[in-house]
Amino acid sequence: MTFARAAKRVPYLKKLGISHLYASPIFTATAGSTHGYDVTDANEIDPALGGREGFDLLVQALKKAGLGLILDIVPNHMAASLENRWWRDVIAQGENSPYARHFDIDWSRRLTLPFLGEDFDIVVGKGELTVKPDPETGKPAFAYYENVYPLVAESWQGREQDVLSLTDPARIAELHAQQPWRLMCWRDAANELSYRRFFEITGLVGMRVEDEQVFDDTHRLILELVQSGAVDGLRVDHVDGLADPQGYLTRLRQKAGTDCYITVEKILGKGEHLPEAWPVSGTTGYEFIAALSDVLVDDEKIDRLREAYHHVVGRTVDMKAELRAAKLLMVDRNFAGEFSTLLRLAMDISNTETPSPREEAVRQALRELLIAFPVYRTYGTAQGLPPADRALLQKIVEKVNASRYAPDPAALGFITRVLTGEVAKNARDEAAHFRTRFQQLTGPLMAKSVEDTLFFRQNMDLALNEVGAEPLQRNFSLSRFHAEMQTRLERQPNALSATSTHDTKRGEDARARLYALTEAPERWAECVERWREMNKAKVSPLDDGPAPRPAVAWMIYQALAGVWPVTLQPDDAEGLKALEARFVEFVEKALREAKQRTDWVDGNDAYESAVLDYARHLLSPGNQLFLQDFTTALLPFIRAGLVNSLTQTLIKLAAPGVPDIYQGSEALNFSLVDPDNRLAPDYGELERLLAAQEHADPRLQEGWSSGQLKQSFIARLLHLRQQKPSLFRQGEYIVLNATGEQADNVISFARVENDDALIVLAPRLLFGALEGSLNGAVIPLPARLAHRHYRDILSGEDILLNDRVNLRTIGGFTFAVLVSA
């Protein structure tokens, strides 16, 4: 999406009711980047997007239409790419580079460059590493395919021609040993990396923005754009990766000014809140997605779905044990290098202890503490841990000590004292360094264990496997949702409320549809059993077991149900082919993320091929027996999902928070995990639907199946928000409890500020009543809402309410957004 293309969409966004365009990173990234998070120059607007000129034209178009601009910024990391001038300079000069400490590099050893396909000796022996003139400078450099690594001057000055003529492997290895860096195989990165990376991505190197000079150098253009008025807000990517998030945010607020809208990408655990001292408007809203499941999951029936899943798996799944296994894998393999660094730091500090704890005891204690950590991180600084984090750490330590895996208490006590800063005076600096590294590891460890491992292994209901969700079994209830919204209003009323993002595991409407599985668990289980029988000939008997196993087949059928286009028919060969291309890519990713029979690191081609062939067979036009059965069986789930979709849309637009409408999600979004969810929407179709929305009739199927009705609801609510901003941002959140036979099938709440009032009514758990009628529900009104005239902005009706809302009075259509007249 270039600036010029985005500018052409501004009239549509204006008509929809959007207040701000919210852009992914716009700064120069690696060539061909599809996302922009691999920044190579933080002080240049990417020429591939249109450069500064294109950016300025977009800003002009937005301002002319009265829209603002929010930018996604990436302070945690940059691309470890030769396209990055700073990184290239570090390679050319080592520690003498002025940027040597801009990057989070451990300079106690040689900088590791894990970009070889095989071990160094093998690469050199094959003649794949040569010495050639650098195309940019003409000076000697190592060349490995298209990559060129400049050699430090000391290693070739005075003998340039001799170095350039090197072909002997031994002499090339000798020259390599003279560099302040070493090339190595990418497979060794998890164990031997000398720089902090973003999660497991070695191509993204951590930045030391806690250093004021680094902050200034990486934020010069960002702050210029804010201070000039071109940019109204900033979304801070992966704030938990920073050494000192609060210090960074305080400096950013001081530089950006009080009017700049700032949100942080932060995953909140159960019961966790943003630190009150952070000068931000709130999070980017993943916790809001998790809260919506309390509205749309049938808590009375979900256990039956869980039982059916366990039957397919062949055992009762212990999610606590599964979470532990995923975290163990991450600690012992994927983050082995980071763990070893922590252990080394701890052992250095242990020398100040009497008696000094044994290394093996410290290893076990550190491992168990990391595994037991229930949130992304604590926020200690050089001064130690804040009181709330001290209390949290103490709870975790007590839990670890009481567990069956309890390590040596003395070793665990030692690590606890290091984290709290209760060490010898001469070890406090080392303890602060350990604390920072520990805090920078717990977040990636949690994310990769839960979001990118466990959520691809355990697939009872894929709707619940979402960023920000709790992986462990819990209850779902409306009262919990209402309580969270009241807390949201109190603590972060201006946080984003998300339902789809570039990081969500599936689009919001796919999730809404899959929530409905909890309403009909037996029916779903019977369907999966029948479909597996229909397609059993395509299950491959491999040496390590059938492919796919029943549990993986369950996941495949559920993922297919979530992504299935509303109007796709079994005889539409072209539509099936288009879906197959996207779906197979998802299945491949799901298998690798699960890290069970195949992996991104160690692939199992036979297994992957067999499962992908199975997935292709499901979508083959010749597989009509299955396709006819699948589409017929899916119909009630599709209808229930569309109801759920509208309900979650109304809630997002009216509950506390700022609704974030991800590209194309104003209509229906059945996307799968990235890159599928980053595909460009059909803006032409979206504009056509919006132009015709005045004629959208909620009684007509076309409006539901095209997404036009959802888009219409969004447009009406967004324009109402613009008319009554104070009501939506500051208005009280009042719970309205329904009574009557269908009381559990409606969610209702009000927003009130002074004389302004808004009542929201929406259906839930309507799988068994697909016409959407709620004639058996009545909503008593408190005195401040009763005996008033309202207008339903969805239907256009004027309504006089006495002391209750009888849903039969709302035009026979369950959804209602009533605004006081």
TrEMBL record:
<dbReference type="GO" id="GO:0047470">
    <property type="term" value="F:(1,4)-alpha-D-glucan 1-alpha-D-glucosylmutase activity"/>
</dbReference>
<dbReference type="InterPro" id="IPR012767">
    <property type="entry name" value="Trehalose_TreY"/>
</dbReference>
<keyword id="KW-0413">Isomerase</keyword>
<protein>
    <submittedName>
        <fullName>Malto-oligosyltrehalose synthase</fullName>
        <ecNumber>5.4.99.15</ecNumber>
    </submittedName>
</protein>
<feature type="domain" description="Glycosyl hydrolase family 13 catalytic">
    <location>
        <begin position="3"/>
        <end position="404"/>
    </location>
</feature>
<dbReference type="Pfam" id="PF00128">
    <property type="entry name" value="Alpha-amylase"/>
</dbReference>
<dbReference type="InterPro" id="IPR006047">
    <property type="entry name" value="GH13_cat_dom"/>
</dbReference>
<dbReference type="InterPro" id="IPR017853">
    <property type="entry name" value="GH"/>
</dbReference>
<dbReference type="InterPro" id="IPR013797">
    <property type="entry name" value="Maltooligo_trehalose_synth_4"/>
</dbReference>
